[in-house]
Structure formats: C-alpha cells, structure tokens
Write a structure and sequence with these properties.
Blueprint: H1 2-52, H2 54-57, E1 62-63, E2 66-67, H3 68-100, E3 109-111, H4 113-123, H5 125-131, E4 134-138, E5 146-148, H6 150-167, E6 174-182, E7 187-194, H7 224-234, E8 240-244, E9 248-256, H8 260-263
Parallel strand pairs: 4-6
Antiparallel strand pairs: 1-2, 3-5, 6-7, 7-9, 8-9
The structure holds adenosine-5'-diphosphate and magnesium ion.
Length: about 260
C-alpha cells in the first residue's frame, strides 16, 4: 500500500507538471494559430503587388536570400505547413492534458453501460459517418448495472471508436460497438470491433504504452489506448485485443455487474 501511495504521489506531481507545461505551450501556440492565417493573407497580398512589378524588379530579385520566383512558389505551402504544425502541437498538448488530468480514484457509481455507449457514439457520430457506411450499435438487452464512472468509460469508448474508424481502408468496412451480459462471470462485456487494417503481432505488446503510435504521419499521439487502459484498470478490468492483419481488430473489456441480490 505504501508503494501505491508513493506511486500515486509521483503521478500527481507529474500531472501538475504536465498541466503547467501544457498551459505554457498552449498560450503562445494560440497566438501562432490565430495570427498565421492573417500573416498568410498579408504575405500573399504583398506577393501579388510584387508579381505586378516583377519585370522592373529584375531577374535577381530576392526575398530572405532566396530567388523571388522560388520563394513565391514555395511560400503558400510553407505557411500551410506552419499552420498544420501549430495545429498538431495543439492536438498533442490537448491529449497530454487529458493524460495528466488524473484525479486519484475515479468515483464509481451504479452505471448503465448502454446509456454510456450511446452517449459515446453521439460524441463521435460525425467521425463514424465519415469513416464507414456500416456502423452498428448492438446494445444487449436487460443488462445489469455495473460499478463505473460514466465520463471515464465514455472516454474509453470514444478512443476505441476513433481508433476503429481510423483503421478502416474505406467506408464499406464495418465498425460495431456491442454490449452484452455474461451472467456466468457476473460481468457486462463491451466490445468495439472493426474490419480495418489489423495490428501487427509485434505491435500488440506496445499498444497501451504512452506515445506508442503508428500514425505519426496523420498526427496520432499514442495516448488514447494508454489512457483507456488506465481507466479500465481503475475499474478492475483490462483491455483485450484480438486482431488479424488485413481483417480487423476487436477490443473488449468487462465491467463488474452489480449483483442483483445486492440491489434487491
Ligand atoms: P493513436 O491513435 O494516437 O495512434 P492509440 O493509443 O489510440 O494512439 O493507439 C496506438 C496504436 O495502436 C495506433 O497507432 C495503432 O497502431 C494501434 N491501434 C489501435 N487501435 C487499432 C485498431 N482498431 N486497428 C488497428 N490498429 C489499432
Ligand atoms: Mg487513438
């Protein structure tokens, strides 16, 4: 128990540190994001003025030490890349803040898994519809309530649903969110299945490591599964992965049902 307390103290200190750093980065980055579009418009306007006087400026005319024509050709993309970089910083910092915002133990309360699943789907509805024409929500009937924290479980489901959507090669592939009662084990099982790219066997052990991502190009932060695994663990469960490369992935976890005896 002593060990757990020390660990909890370290995590809290880390959380404070990360929140502080995130704040310090987000503020100046906010100026960048706000002003970049204006700067871009101003520079491109100025270029048009220069374009009109291109002839009289001469062949050797330079901007910032580069031949004008080359600078002129590259400028729009340079500015767009800077803006994209700023947006990426914002995404990483937002994810980090989420990661750091760990109050000690989450308050567990009697929770309706189906209601939480439906709420999670509503949150990412737009992303789901963009990613697939074949989304199904299969809510188990007469589920017992579980002990859980609705906000946190919703966050897990949002992460799993977004990962499923991002794994699809095209909208004809299906994504399914299902809940069901397992009376023998006294659990409610939640499952997100996709017909996406699947996970390479060598990646499986690292999926829940903070910052592990195969989506560097598209701006993945590698924090979604790490956060989700921690949350499920706080509920006494574990994330289970089943995957076949090229065929798809199923991620599931179980939540302890509140025994009907105790409820009566
Ligand atoms: P991110 O989505 O930002 O990359 P995550 O922690 O959510 O970070 O996921 C980590 C990695 O696990 C992903 O980059 C991806 O390689 C893999 N992964 C997670 N879910 C799936 C899935 N449904 N199908 C295929 N790969 C997945
Ligand atoms: Mg993710």
């Amino acid at each position: 128990h002593q060990q757990q307390l020390i660990q909890a103290g370290k995590m809290a200190a880390l959380g404070v540190l990360v929140s502080g750093v995130a704040h310090e980065i987000n503020n100046p980055n906010g100026y960048i994001l706000l002003n970049m579009p204006i700067l871009k418009a101003a520079l491109l306007d100025a270029c048009e003025v220069l374009d009109a006087r291109r002839q009289e400026l001469g062949a050797r005319f330079e901007l910032a030490g580069l031949p004008y024509d080359r600078m002129r050709a590259e400028l729009p993309q340079m500015l767009d890349e800077m803006l994209a970089g700023g947006r990426r910083i914002k995404r990483i910092v937002d994810d980090l803040k989420n990661f750091a915002r760990r109050e000690d133990a989450p308050a567990l309360e009697p929770m309706d898994v189906n209601a939480v699943a439906a709420a999670a789907v509503r949150l990412v509805d737009v992303s789901i519809r963009k990613a697939t024409h074949r989304f199904t929500l299969e809510l188990g009937r007469d589920l017992p309530r579980v002990l859980g924290n609705p906000q946190r479980i919703e966050q897990v489901l949002v992460n799993l649903l977004l990962n499923a959507c991002q794994a699809l090669p095209g909208p004809e592939r299906a994504v399914r969110l299902a809940t069901r009662h397992d009376p023998a084990r006294g659990e409610v099982v939640v499952e997100v299945a996709d017909e996406g790219a699947g996970i390479a066997p060598e990646d499986l052990p690292r999926l829940t490591d903070p910052f592990f991502t195969t989506k560097r190009e598209t701006g993945g932060t590698g924090l979604g599964l790490s956060i989700s695994a921690t949350i499920v663990k706080e509920h006494g469960g574990a994330l289970q992965f089943e995957s076949a490369v090229g065929a798809g992935t199923t991620v599931s976890f179980a939540l302890r049902a509140i025994s009907t005896e105790a409820a009566a």
